[in-house]
């Protein structure tokens, strides 16, 4: 009975965490460059149950002993093992703002070890953790004329330097080259991750590496192609309809576990209040 309480409780906790993840996806459905989170739910190791019974060993002087009869496997509940961002390209939305620059995936190599497709990101200067990475190309110019992201982090060029512009009257070519008065002044920095599933996702759509090292430049990576489009932003890749369906499924699963928990609780009450009297 007590084991049943633990199994049901683990299911409720896993579905609650999944609900929180899906709710966060829905809340960021309109956030530029946001990558939807996916949950991985696994079961705890199963336990093999056996029943002990008496046995009489036929010897000259009979000996009573114990033997075990297999009953079967018992599940011990589930848990959310990890969350993985979905890094596929989001749809483009035209804004007609010069500081909005969408990053468009081209040919990206597949990692031979994991079978996962690589990913590209804009390079940002983080005040604490070195470089950070994002797909949100909704940029702006700060008071000093530096190109920054919505949180005020500096956008870096292909050489790892801040991008200083005289005003927002500039043009961005498909290869990320920035032109002011027909003169090239900088190239927007883009980094490539061969194993993006190892990146740590932070708030505001930022990513960082596990060990704090910088990702290599996508311009120098072999078999990597991409382009940029000025006046556009990459929308979130959250599928609102699918997310809402998954959210209802998680809620129903939580509710079903709750009903089972109530049934266990009622059985325990009868065991204490009624069976105990006998």
Automatic annotation (TrEMBL):
Subcellular location, record wording: Bacterial flagellum basal body
Residue ranges annotated for the Flagellar basal-body/hook protein C-terminal domain, each copy included: 229-273
Location of the Flagellar basal body rod protein N-terminal domain: 7-35
Keyword Transmembrane helix applies: no
Parts forming coiled coils: none
Domain Flagellar hook protein FlgE/F/G-like D1 positions: 118-180
Keywords for the protein's UniProt record, in alphabetical order: Bacterial flagellum, Cell projection, Cilium, Flagellum
UniProt KW Zinc-finger keyword: no
One annotated GO biological process: bacterial-type flagellum-dependent swarming motility
Range of residues in the leader sequence: none
Family, similarity comment: Belongs to the flagella basal body rod proteins family.
UniProt name for this protein: Flagellar hook-basal body protein
Source species: Psychrobacillus vulpis
């Amino acid at each position: 009975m007590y084991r049943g309480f633990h199994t049901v409780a683990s299911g409720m906790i896993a579905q609650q965490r999944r609900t929180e993840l899906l709710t966060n996806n829905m809340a960021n459905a309109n956030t530029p460059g946001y990558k939807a989170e996916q949950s991985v739910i696994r079961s705890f190791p199963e336990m093999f149950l056996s029943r002990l019974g008496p046995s009489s060993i036929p010897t000259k002087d009979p000996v009573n002993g114990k033997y075990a009869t297999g009953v079967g496997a018992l599940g011990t509940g589930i848990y959310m093992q990890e969350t993985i961002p979905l890094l596929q390209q989001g749809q483009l939305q035209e804004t007609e703002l010069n500081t909005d620059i969408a990053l468009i995936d081209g040919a990206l190599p597949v990692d031979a070890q994991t079978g996962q497709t690589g990913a590209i990101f804009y390079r940002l200067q983080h005040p604490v953790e070195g470089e950070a990475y994002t797909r949100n190309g909704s940029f702006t110019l700060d008071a000093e004329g530096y190109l920054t992201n919505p949180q005020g982090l500096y956008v870096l060029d292909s050489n790892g330097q801040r991008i200083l512009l005289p005003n927002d009257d500039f043009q961005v070519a498909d290869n990320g080259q920035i032109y002011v008065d027909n003169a090239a002044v900088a190239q927007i920095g883009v980094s490539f991750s061969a194993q993006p599933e190892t990146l740590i996702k932070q708030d505001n759509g930022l990513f960082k590496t596990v060990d704090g090292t910088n990702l290599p430049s996508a311009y120098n990576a072999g078999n990597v192609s991409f382009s940029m489009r000025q006046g556009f932003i990459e929308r979130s890749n959250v599928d609102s309809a699918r997310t809402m369906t998954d959210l209802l499924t998680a809620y129903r699963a939580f509710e079903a576990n709750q009903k089972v928990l109530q049934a266990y609780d009622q059985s325990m009450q009868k065991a204490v209040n009624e069976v105990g009297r006998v």
